[in-house]
Fold Glyoxylate/hydroxypyruvate reductase B.
Amino acid sequence: MNVFITRVIPEAGLKLLKDAGFTVKQWTEKRKLSTEELIEECKWADALLSAGQQLNREFLEASAHLKVIALNSVGYDNVDIETATRLKIPVGNTPGVLSGATADTAFLLMMSAARNAFFMHKTIISGDWDFFEPTANLGKELTGGTLGIFGLGKIGVEMAKRCKGAFGMKVIYHNRNRNEDAEKELGATYVSFEELLKQSDVISVHTALTPETEGKFNAEAFRQMKSSAIFVNTARGKIHNEEDLISALNEKLIWGAGLDVTNPEPMKPGNPLLTMPHVAVLPHIGSATETTRDAMSKLAAENIIAGLKGERLPFPVNPEIYS
Ligand SMILES: NC(=O)C1=CN([C@@H]2O[C@H](COP(=O)(O)OP(=O)(O)OC[C@H]3O[C@@H](n4cnc5c(N)ncnc54)[C@H](O)[C@@H]3O)[C@@H](O)[C@H]2O)C=CC1
Ligand SMILES: O=C(O)C(=O)CO
């Protein structure tokens, strides 16, 4: 059995695949494959382990022989799941193991925006750090503030735990469904989207990218937020409208922002967000720790192994193919 992998993955996952007796080919070029290249590579493969590739209808229809597609991510917005399901190709993802690391990144971005850390760092590089000024470079304290989580799933819960534990923040959330476990564990309160915007000192986005969440944080949403609020997005860049975010920051409708995800990725080096005060931008490193990336590669390998054995994937995103 042959497995094509669209990126070099950690040894931990690779070993599981090799120990299972599969022949593995990794794409080592530091660029994404085109759809045509991916179709060509997959002609040889029985399974695909995909990191960061767009798996569209054209690719899936040309690769309907694949017995399994394992994503090296929890997000699956870059896969045409409807087509994969129609073609009965099981698709697996990597939930849970990356929740802590990604929440750590959200926390880092929240803190960095609150204390203007990225901007102040640049003043050292440019030689503009002159002397200690008691009235300048002032940030925000978060103790006792309100954290608003948009999408209180696995990562959202981890972010809420960190903010409650560190700063005693009150947690409110808006979700597709109530999360009663989190309400009990964290004392989190369910609110409407409008109340989330109005009441939060920090809004942290943790939903999947879907037609309902795309562009959700737009001019209208930023207008309803507190002028002292910080907007954090570690989910997907398309959930906020970048132009509207830049205007909201320039017009001081909100105070700051922390982004691990942008639209497009990579963000262009001249993007104004990279030099604005109270803004912190990272290059999609939410899950990027050794421990977490090892664990993700193992889950992806487990999905491949189950799929190639004809078994149900341990982490399927289209479980309906089994019914
Ligand atoms: N920056 C990074 O490196 C990473 C980003 N992510 C992103 O984070 C997202 C969330 O991951 P998890 O917490 O593991 O997923 P999850 O499925 O546990 O949580 C997502 C939550 O959002 C809610 N939701 C979905 N649609 C909604 C809507 N229209 N309105 C309100 N709530 C809605 C769901 O009910 C669920 O509670 C992923 O889909 C991925 O896009 C995930 C890992 C790393
Ligand atoms: O898992 C995901 O969805 C990511 O964005 C990277 O870990």
In short: The pocket of 3-hydroxypyruvic acid (ligand 2) is lined by residues 73-75, 98, 286-287 (CB under 6 Å). The chain has a mean pLDDT of 98.
